[in-house]
Design goal:
Keywords: Transferase
Organism: Acetobacterium wieringae
Strand content: 25-35%
Number of helices: 6
Largest sheet: 6 strands, mixed
Pfam families: Acetyltransf_1
GO molecular function, one term: acyltransferase activity, transferring groups other than amino-acyl groups
Helix content: 25-40%
Protein name: Acetyltransferase (GNAT) family protein
Structural class: alpha+beta
Distance between the termini: 51 Å
Order of helices and strands: EHHEEEHEHEEEEHH
CATH class: Alpha Beta
Number of domains: 1
CATH superfamily: Gcn5-related N-acetyltransferase (GNAT)
Length: about 210
């Protein structure tokens, strides 16, 4: 029997469930433990957060994943600014991964982003997960961080073809991503106790997040 799949905006009654899913998906993935669920918790009240692009995906009326977007900006060498998007956290519960749900959720969010007038997304992530969704290295679009750094994990998607004209841009993400580690620890301490431990994906993340393209 076909499963009923629904993508909709997150509602306040979903907050705890979404935070639980985020914690479950990211726990021990990049570091022992995680703080992505705390990021979700504080992101919703930040000025850069975009409620219209705050989405959950349901299978048979149960939330199995979500995606959240914030505003970011590019600044060129003349000082001109361009408002763009970044997304994250994005997650699908482990038992539903590799079944196309993440693809459906991300592609749907792209359509919404275009309808809202956005044309560029910049993210940090594992390229293996995103190049199939049309993301390319930031180097290809001449988009860098300050000090001419082109991280291997920084990728760009044009939502409209050739909207980027090749000029040099510096990427600036929202300050909401500057997590207060102590506050994150306090937030997590009030939740169900989970074991923090090492796993190989943490080394993979370290390599990706510290690699740059020359």
């Amino acid at each position: 029997m076909d499963k009923e799949i629904k993508i909709r905006n997150e509602e306040e009654s979903d907050y705890q469930r979404v935070e639980e899913i985020t914690r479950k998906c990211f726990w021990n993935l990049y570091i022992p433990g995680c703080n992505e669920h705390y990021l979700v918790h504080v992101m919703r009240s930040h000025e850069d957060f975009l409620p219209a692009l705050d989405l959950v995906i349901e299978v048979d009326n149960q939330i199995i994943g979500n995606i959240m977007y914030t505003r970011a900006k590019l600044i060129d060498e003349s000082g001109a600014e361009k408002e763009i998007l970044t997304f994250g956290p994005v997650c699908i519960l482990p038992e539903y991964q590799r079944k196309g749900y993440g693809k459906k959720l991300i592609e749907y969010s792209f359509e919404l982003a275009v309808a809202l007038g956005y044309d560029v997304i910049v993210i940090f992530g594992n390229p293996n997960n995103y190049v199939s969704r049309g993301f390319k290295s930031c180097k290809r679009y001449n988009i860098c961080l300050e000090n001419d750094i082109y991280p291997s994990a920084m990728m760009v998607k044009e939502l409209k073809p050739e909207v980027l004209d090749g000029r040099k841009w510096v990427y600036h993400q929202s300050p909401v991503f500057e997590i207060d580690e102590q506050e994150a620890e306090r937030f997590d301490a009030g939740l169900e106790s989970l074991e923090k431990k090492y796993q190989p994906s943490q080394e993979e993340f370290f390599i990706h997040s510290h690699s740059i393209i020359r």
